[in-house]
Amino acid sequence: MRDQPKILDCENEPLANSGLIQPGGALLFMEKGSRQFRYVSANAESLLGEPAADLLGQDGDDWLAGVLPDMGALPTAAGQRLQLTAGVDLGAGDLDVLITTTGSGWLLELEPSVPADQAQQPPSLAAITDTMTTEQLHHVQQQLVDAIRRVIGFERVMLYRFHPDWTGEVIAESAAATAKTYLGLRFPASDIPAIARALYAQTPYRHVPDTRATPIPILSRSGEATALDLTWSDLRSVSPVHVQYLENMGVMSSFSVSIMVDGRLWGLVACHHPSAKTIPLARRDDCRALVSAYVDHFKVYQRSVQQEIHQDLTQSLDRLQAALDAGAPIATAFADQFAPLAQRFSASGAALWVDRDLTLLGDPADPEALSALHDWCLREQSDAIAAFDQLPEALLSQLADQQRGFSGFLSIGMRALRHGNALLQLYLLRPEEVSEIAWAGDPEKPLAATPDGLRLSPRDSFDKWVEVRRGFSKPWSDTDRFAAEQLRERLMQLL
Ligand code: BLA
């Protein structure tokens, strides 16, 4: 009898607790309470001149005072970093030092220092402006990938943006003429599992100099399995599944810089090189600074978009207010303001319920379909604002194709206190938009047959694979949601 197919569970691989590092440097862990070296990587002697067995148990403060007498106090906040370029030489040449505070102590990572080519100024992005158009943002995005490629000399540097469903898209690229391009291609969410994304949200970047390098074990005095949390380690070993992925892509060295916006992982600058390549600590830091400058630009762009929304809505709502003041019923006042709102939200139609009264606006869908939608939302939806680019299963089975007339909706609900506490529910409707998504390889293909059975393993082809998507509307963006929140807030003040 055949064994049950084995499905590799990417979401449960304990990435931060591998007990291994990449061999480009040595790692020491100084425990907070005892202030001793509790864990040391097995390759310590080659860089630090002392075998791991001798370093284990040593007083970390004493050791640091010996090798880095001018260092000053250790950083205290978790995730906080202290770095010194060519800070020490213990017999094997200058070493760069990175000290990172973790919940239970300090990670000390030392790696051979690479002298800078010249005292070269790292490239920078355009100066920050007060407002920014989409075109200007695209320009800065291109500057970012070009600048990072100049700093690290990799073959391909991509700006990879996450969509709300955690699939991702390459939205800008800087690549050698001979390199394959991924610009415009979409990648499934499973390529970067949630457990990996959670790590990248806490660290500035992920550096993999050589996928073929043999990882080094981290040792402890008692020889017990290492439970050390490597979340903040630059040297953390690479998941074997991801090594396979990179090999399938023809990549031997990779580097990804995290882009955080409003506390959320917005995207990555993903960099590839076909041969092994180490990026010196100081250059990794330059890339981090470039990404931080990009985030500043992006925030200006975000603010510009929000200001524009604010102005648009103010105009519409001032007119709505005037109509209400002149005694018009809510539905009538709304109907007169529908055109600009429809344009703002790319809506083909809308439905407004004021208690049990329905008003159809724009290119109306079938009232029966809208009643079904309204009932479903009242039953299943508790959020004041909800957006769907595909109809929920329950509605799809209930409504015939020709009856629907819309595939996506955004609902905004509130109480109109000054109008008899009426329950107001506005649905902005979007028609079906048959679209093509250009995936990098068939996204349904990660289930591969192996000698052990089926495995969820990385795709072996990243060639463009076009999916035709039906039954979806144009997706509701963050900007749409922001506009909906603004609209609801302003309506609540008004009504
Ligand atoms: C990690 N996957 C990653 C990383 C990237 C990607 C950027 C971060 C590490 C790095 O920089 O190399 C994916 N790389 C991409 C994508 C692009 C790119 C989408 O350049 C597009 C341009 N991967 C799979 C499957 C699994 C998987 C099926 O395809 C799991 C079964 C896992 N990916 C996986 C894991 C990591 C990862 C576990 C974490 C690696 C680590 O940090 O140790």
Give a quick rundown of the structure.
The chain is elongated, with a radius of gyration of 28 Å. It contains 13 helices and 22 strands.
Radius of gyration: 28 Å
CATH superfamily of the largest domain: GAF domain
Low-confidence stretches: 1-7
CATH topology of the largest domain: the name is: Beta-Lactamase
Strand percentage, roughly?
A: 25-35%
Measured distance between first and last alpha carbons: 69 Å
> In the residues, how many domains can be counted?
2
> Number of DSSP helices?
13
Describe the structure.
With 495 residues, the chain is of the alpha+beta class. It has 2 domains: 3-117 and 125-301, Beta-Lactamase (2-Layer Sandwich), CATH 3.30.450; 328-434 and 472-494, Beta-Lactamase (2-Layer Sandwich), CATH 3.30.450.270. It contains 13 helices and 22 strands. The protein has helices spanning 44-48, 52-55, 60-67, 134-152, 194-200, 240-248, 281-325, 330-336, 338-344, 367-380, 393-398, 401-404, 478-494, and strands at 20-21, 26-31, 37-41, 81-89, 94-102, 105-112, 156-162, 168-175, 186-187, 205-208, 216-220, 253-261, 264-273, 349-354, 357-362, 385-388, 408-416, 422-430, 435-440, 447-450, 453-456, 464-469. The strands form 5 sheets. Strands 1-11-3-2-6-5-4 form a 7-stranded antiparallel β-sheet. Strands 9-8-7-13-12-10 form a 6-stranded antiparallel β-sheet. A hairpin with a 2-residue loop joins strand 12 (253-261) and strand 13 (264-273). Helix 7 (281-325) runs parallel beside helix 13. It is elongated. The chain starts with 19 loop residues before the first strand and ends with a helix. Residues 1-7 have low confidence and may be disordered. Bound molecules: biliverdine IX alpha.
